Amino acid sequence: MLVVDRDACVLYELYDARRSADGSWHAGSGAVFDLRSNQLRPDGWTSADAAGLPILPGLVRYDEVAAGEVDHAIRVTARTTQAAHLWPARHHAGSANADLPPMGLRLRLKASVDISGFPAPMQVVLRAMQRHGLVVADNGSSWYFSGVPDERWNNDVLHTLDVLQGSDFEAVDTSSLMVAPDSGRVGSAVPVADLGRYVDAVYRDFLGRAPDAAGRAHWVAQLQQGLPRSTFTAAIARSPEWTGAVVTTLYTGAFDRPPDAAGLAYWRQRVQAGTRVADVATSFFGSPESFTRAGTTPEGFVDRLYTRILGRPADAAGRAFWADRIRPGTPLFVLAADLYQSKESRNRRVRDLYAELLDRGPDAAGLTYWAGALLDLDDLVLAADLAASDEYLRRAQRA
């Protein structure tokens, strides 16, 4: 049984959890993981997995497959294992046979394995096996990897992976990634020169400039020491410089003018504090000033918002529908919110960010996933996630 306390960022995992007739719960063992820490369990300690590692991070989730990328290693079991464990594993439960895999062993699907003939969702999983690999975490069925239960999984598609053989994988020595024996934090396997080009690309795409020498050196060193790329891109996406640029773009789109100093400072602070870009856009486009700049007629206002938000003129039916609603007093922001968070607008924003950051349009699965996520997710999070992807890292090396 796995339980996540989202507020406290704590993961609880129970082995052999059972509910008794009186309603109480019992388990063979339990483990608690602080999700804000890289600290491993004491060496020699088990968990709900024999390797002493958390189960949850190694599970494949339907939503990440639908989004087109599984950005982590995958938990795998073996029928019998060696009486030894490798970092980051903390425990073993095997026999004294050096021919068997130890707990913590990283296995990688060989690059020579052709995955093009597999169904698209399984290609996403197989790419993760080639890039991030599998980690031997427990005794069990041979080559058995797990996913988060989800009724959307297609078992027939999942079983197309049954054709894989052990010979399709290779063992990888990950000891060079270890920062400290009792920490799960990893150093970067990416060469320093490549990290420098990556930092350059993020600065260029987000801030429109090259990094200053001190900033470049800082971020390259942090990434080299194991800072997740997503932490770096999130910091840039929430920086005063980029949030200011986002606010300025929205001001210009809604009002045909740059923001005044006080307005820029106020809205930039709001975005940095977590106000979604969609909510700021709704405030701007649905304001009295926006209505005035449209000529103060409902039809003109509708036309202006369609053009500015959707990039096209309003169709006759849409113009008539919204004008008739605004005329008797429907708040202006209602139209702004409806258009900005419409499927058409969300699709457009996803396509724009893919083009800007990855130099391509989204695949169908990625478009569906991210457009749906933007109903709740901030646009800044999507931008940061795309810039943290392996694809963006590879693109940065070609720039």
What does this structure look like?
The protein folds into two domains: 49-177, no CATH class; 241-392, serine acetyltransferase, domain 1 (Orthogonal Bundle), CATH 1.10.3130. The chain is 45% helix and 10% strand. It contains 17 helices and ten strands. The strands form three sheets. A five-stranded mixed sheet has the order 9-6-8-7-10, covered by helices on one side. The mean pLDDT is 93.
Q: Fraction of residues in helices? A: 40-55%
- Sheet/helix structural class: alpha+beta
CATH top level of the largest domain?
Mainly Alpha
Which parts are unreliable, with pLDDT below 50 for 5 consecutive residues or more?
none
CATH topology of the largest domain: serine acetyltransferase, domain 1
Q: Mean pLDDT score, rounded?
A: 93
Total individual domains: 2
Q: Per the principal axes of the C-alpha atoms, what is the gross shape?
A: elongated
Work out the strand percent.
5-15%
Tell me about the largest β-sheet: 5 strands, mixed
Question: What is this structure's SSE topology?
Answer:
Blueprint lengths: L1 E4 L4 E6 L2 E2 L5 E2 L2 E6 L27 H6 L6 E5 L27 E4 L10 H12 L2 E6 L4 E2 L9 H4 L10 E4 L19 H16 L5 H12 L4 H9 L2 H16 L5 H12 L4 H9 L2 H6 L4 H13 L5 H11 L5 H9 L2 H16 L5 H10 L5 H9 L2 H9 L1
Parallel strand pairs: 6-8
Antiparallel strand pairs: 1-2, 2-5, 3-4, 6-9, 7-8, 7-10
Overview features:
399 residues, alpha+beta, serine acetyltransferase, domain 1, 2 domains, five-stranded mixed β-sheet, three-stranded antiparallel β-sheet, 17 helices, 10 strands, 45% helix, elongated
